[in-house]
């Protein structure tokens, strides 16, 4: 029996993995305060992932561009990839090669992938799928507090709160054990859907505010307006611990609740009720998720929620706070170690001369040889195979054919590449299109560290030997780097050696891991970063914020409409999200029989009147059509749904991909796409 952590979401519930005596493996909850000894359905069934029947155990390669994939040996595959990369770089320069990572990769993989791109390939063209799911909250957190740690307090603090506002987070389905911390506080759930979390809030006397998608910012302004009217502003805190309130208030002053109702559709009485709950709570938290972030105004929307939290005096007050609920398993660590286009390890900016000097000294290179910032994920996808864009892509831990916005554009861009290399443990929808597929280890087959949504560094332990023929991502990077002329010592394949280097590279940065020693990790210490030698930091901001003046900053923000408005041809708004049985692109969970049986196909949640207006009834297959394409889903007539909004989960493949319809419009600050709102129409599938 081996203690490790769940392969899926950012709660990183602890579990024991053990043999079932018949060649398979089971998972059982392990004690862990963050998950209160719980697992959700995905965690309980994670052992089945290890027995995926279509597990890749040998590299695959196409002998010619349109030929089928064929098994080859590791040396053949790596020699071929390295040779093609070297030739492309010689012909077109280092930026002709791009790297795409993932928020589920361990800290060690995220770190070595960033180093591989900047040192072995010398390319600026690296980004990762976390750009799609946390970057707006990260940008808003940085500008407000000077640092971005999803939750700057332990999850266990939530149980002591009197009131929690959850904006755009369906926790009851995405991370159910977290709900155990939310049974005491009054809940205010902000979600266009009457989600499972909203139902729970209503059942215990809380509030559900259901704004029109894309209007959360106006709702936050309306609540702040009402808080002030209720006399709930924390004047002393605002004076002593913040700057910028007056400028922020000038944008808020016109958003009295009745005006906010006109824009959001949330009754003014409910806006005032939310304000009274928050203003009257001794301890309160405001938490945001993807629903607030995945918009073309996502960074400003999160800033509006942070402004509300600051006006109430919550961040840095013991027992209160603001936090972002990171989604992917290593969504927090994945954005700290350098696989993001604009960052170096330690959560350092790549355009900061001091950061470049420090990281270059750890890497033993000239700081001047480090490339600058590259394209963001969605822009990188658009550039693939173009005259000015990369001609080769190395992809680790991601499945953009399903998960990228406007997914119909992805396959043509991948097909235009000279070389697509995908490292995965199964033949994902993206791997199916690759020129070379490299079979890699999965969660319970590898050692490493993950960082959960509280910034808590966790030990991932190897519980099972990987199948013969499979290598770790670190071994793949080592093998390619050596073939590209780097020394093996620069790119170690051993996770412990990589962690030691990561600790040195992060030292002195915002996300300082230097005290995360193997001994402390093995002892399961509560190691929240920053953890320089000495204790970790479970709670940030108690003595001051990270800006040089120690104060948090209000940001002056105002409502903007979504990039795409409904019209006569596309009269409805589609929004997307997750369901309990699946995780991200579904590449893993669709392979677990229990989960596939629970949610076997795409659905579209729609008000019965709206369905009838489109000639549809419950259970019928519909086409959901936007300006970018169409997807198919079975109608779930839902009386609690807004009549102007439909919801689709994004875990399904082929013609059921929700991202075939989503918008590629980007937030100007974070470059995060607007997954959560696009204009659509519904029609019976049979009409197509
Ligand atoms: Fe816990 Fe998330 Fe895994 Fe469910 S998916 S068991 S909530 S870590």
From TrEMBL:
Gene3D superfamilies: 2.40.40.20, 3.40.50.740, ADC-like domains (2.20.25.90), Dimethylsulfoxide Reductase, domain 2 (3.40.228.10). InterPro entries: Asp_de-COase-like_dom_sf, MoPterin_dinucl-bd_dom, Mopterin_OxRdtase, Mopterin_OxRdtase_4Fe-4S_dom, Prok_molybdopt-oxidoreductase. GO terms for biological process: respiratory electron transport chain. Residues 1-54 form the 4Fe-4S Mo/W bis-MGD-type domain. This is Assimilatory nitrate reductase catalytic subunit. The keyword Heme does not apply. SMART domains: Molybdop_Fe4S4. It holds the Pfam family Molybdopterin. Keywords: 4Fe-4S, Iron, Iron-sulfur, Metal-binding. GO terms for cellular component: membrane. One of its GO terms (molecular function) is molybdopterin cofactor binding.
